[in-house]
Automatic annotation (TrEMBL):
PANTHER family: LIPL48 (PTHR41339), SECRETED PROTEIN (PTHR41339:SF1). Keywords: Signal. Residues 263-292 are annotated as: Disordered. Residues 1-19 form the signal peptide. This is Cell shape-determining protein MreB. Residues 264-292 have a biased composition (Polar residues).
């Protein structure tokens, strides 16, 4: 073997060291040079319209100042571990317009976080807007006359949503947290943005492992569309947990809500609120485009919605209004629910209106494998007079039908559900069931739940006794998290 002369070796090592130093300097420069203008805290400012493909990276923090629109034909990619904050003063929000794509694909170990720009300990409901996605899937109202709620009309498409493509693809949302959203943008009613709002989003879009916490309005709301979803978490919301409107027909499996029983909305908070639209009729599909059809007819399975194991909250407490129903189904909706458990609402199932009751009678609405526990009034018939009127007893007879495996459990018998001792712990919940839980068996996957989208598990509710799909990516104490 030839030996390298000592002087030559020293020169080679010195050159290598110089090259290494130069590479490190380049990396350091790249790390400290922001990708755009920054605020006083060094967060990269996002504002106005994003009109070219852009990637947000975990090495930077971002702040949404005012409504930020990702425009048609543009893809916004977000790296795992990235933190995007919403500005309170300027009411930041992120809106993915029709024809745009968002690729927010975090991981279990490195979720993507949308949160308040406020310091730990000072964050609150509605600190910023929220995440809004508009697609081109069908809705049941005239397309160009129907605009997004909350005054989201200043973007290039003027707040329009919906279309004729049920398989439309708006991208992917996976392992994402959305915290302290829901700011009211105007003084008008229904002007708040939800945590995650899906406007006419198609089934080509992926929604999986999403947590919405401390939202000032609904945690999740679907306005029409066909998008499916799994593994959703609604934590300490203000208004409704899962709200469906305007002809939404997607499928959802594995969803959990944990409420703070002290906080509810002036409109009366519900676990499910479902409408076709206001007032819900006519629903003929004619003579004008999208006249009430398709009916709102999503299918949910394996949902757990918890308020309290104590006395159900009655009246206004620390929030702006009262709790109402675990499920408020009204205005000609045809929503179906399977294999789910609801605990601690003043009311359980409120079927509202004769058109909604008609959807029960024609088997469009299906409820099976459902347990209503710790309710003051488990079953209620509401707002039904004249032709087609029905009673509480009528709804009870339908709910208790043969083969449905539905049940009403009193507070005295709540222990039969085998809930975890930390089930209602607001900052560190554990929803895994005990080995004696009656919910571990008895799931019903008939009718609409026979669809291949649904995993045919044996248990009812979002959890069994061993598979905690919340681990690693959720945060139940975002108020005290430093980002």
């Amino acid at each position: 073997m030839k030996r390298i002369p000592r002087l030559l070796l020293m020169l080679m090592l010195a050159g290598a060291a110089t090259a290494t130093t130069s590479c490190n300097d380049d990396n350091d420069t790249a790390a400290v040079n922001p990708s755009g203008p920054t605020d006083a805290q060094g967060r990269v400012i996002l504002q106005g319209n994003i009109t070219a493909n852009r990637k947000l990276v975990a090495s930077e923090k971002y702040i949404l100042q005012g409504p930020v629109y990702v425009t048609r034909g543009v893809t916004l990619e977000i790296e795992p571990g990235t933190v995007i904050m919403g500005d309170r003063t300027n009411k930041g929000a992120l809106i993915i317009e029709r024809g745009a794509i968002i690729r927010a694909e975090g991981t279990k170990e490195r979720p993507i976080v949308f949160t308040s720009s406020q310091a730990p300990g000072t964050r609150n409901y509605g600190d910023w807007g929220g995440l809004i996605i508009a697609g081109e899937a069908p809705i049941n109202r005239p397309l160009e006359a129907t605009k997004m709620e909350g005054g989201i009309t200043s973007g290039p498409q003027g707040g329009a949503f919906g279309g004729t493509n049920p398989t439309d693809n708006s991208g992917i949302i996976r392992y994402v947290r959305i915290e302290f959203a829901g700011v009211p943008l105007t003084s008008e009613p229904n002007s708040e943005i939800n945590g995650l709002t899906l406007y006419g989003v198609g089934s080509g879009t992926t929604i999986d492992y999403v947590q919405v916490s401390y939202c000032g309005d609904d945690s999740f709301e679907w306005f029409g569309g066909t998008v499916n979803a799994k593994h959703l978490v609604a934590h300490r919301g203000w208004d409704d947990d899962f709200d469906t409107d305007l002809g939404f027909t997607g499928k959802i499996q594995y969803a959990v809500s944990l409420r703070d029983p002290q906080y509810a909305d002036q409109s009366s908070s519900n676990g499910f609120e479902s409408d076709n639209y206001n007032p819900g009729t006519p629903a003929t599909g004619a003579p004008t485009e999208n006249n009430g059809l398709p009916l709102t007819a999503p299918v949910f399975s394996n949902v757990s919605i918890f308020v309290t194991g104590g006395a159900p909250p009655v009246g206004t407490l620390s929030g702006s209004g009262p709790y109402q129903s675990a499920m408020h189904l009204r205005r000609n909706t045809s929503l179906s629910v399977f294999n789910s458990v609801f605990v601690g609402y003043p009311e359980g199932l409120r079927l509202d209106g004769t058109t909604t009751w008609a959807n029960v009678q024609n088997n469009g609405m299906q409820i099976a494998g459902v347990t209503l526990a710790n309710m003051n009034t488990p079953i209620r018939a509401a707002a039904n007079t004249g032709t087609g009127a029905f009673t509480d007893a009528d709804v009870q007879t339908w709910f208790n039908g043969t083969g449905k495996n539905n049940a009403v459990v009193t507070q005295a018998n709540l222990g039969t559900l085998g809930l975890n001792t930390n089930n209602f712990n607001l900052t560190a919940p554990n929803f895994l069931l005990s080995s004696s839980s009656s919910l571990l068996t008895g799931a019903v996957f008939t009718g609409k739940a026979a669809d291949s989208f649904f995993e045919k598990v044996t248990y009812r509710g979002a959890f069994n006794g061993s598979d905690n799909w919340l681990q690693g990516w959720t945060n139940f104490d975002p108020q005290n998290t430093t980002y």
